[in-house]
Amino acid sequence: MPGDNSGTVLQALVALIAIANPFAAVPVFLSLVPAGNPLATRQAATRVALAVFAILTGAVYIGAPVLAMFGISFAAFRVGGGLVVTLTGLDMLRSGHGAESDPAAAANVAEHLIVPVAMPLIAGPGTIITAMTMAARASDAGGSSVMLVAVAAVAAVVWLVLALSGWVQQRIGARGQAIVARSMGLVLVAIGAQLVLGGIADFFDLAVVTNRR
User: What is the pLDDT of residue 151?
Assistant: First the structure.
């Protein structure tokens, strides 16, 4: 029913945005995009939003089968994402600055926007697993299509948040960006460690259950 589909889209949209939390990725995004270049910021936001859409769409349609095909558990997926976040945070702590404004640096930044900004900061293990779970819960034949609408809406929100972050970037200056980069580097290391520890804990919980059987 149309009313049921609308409710499902809204529920999925709220859940995915809450878990993805694109606002938390803004400082990292600002540390990567060229300073004082609104066009580059919008282009980078578009790249990230499209990547988030592609990642979550893949999670809805083929996420669980792909993980099962390679024998990857959700716990291992969380550990891998945590390691990526940790390494990114360490890089930011060492460099302490954002992207340069020259074309070569801008091209290099474009290669690093997918990881870690799109994944795992926004479309991280929690977001992907949520998309997969909500798609599996859809009982009607159009369940995946309904989830696709929600994913597209999430990608639009991600683009809006990141595109508007350029307004912040223009006002904090180079010194402010360096402070943000180092501060967020430390936060990312902590987030990555939490993901790794959570994944390890999940793995051993699964192992204990398996052994008991």
Answer: 92
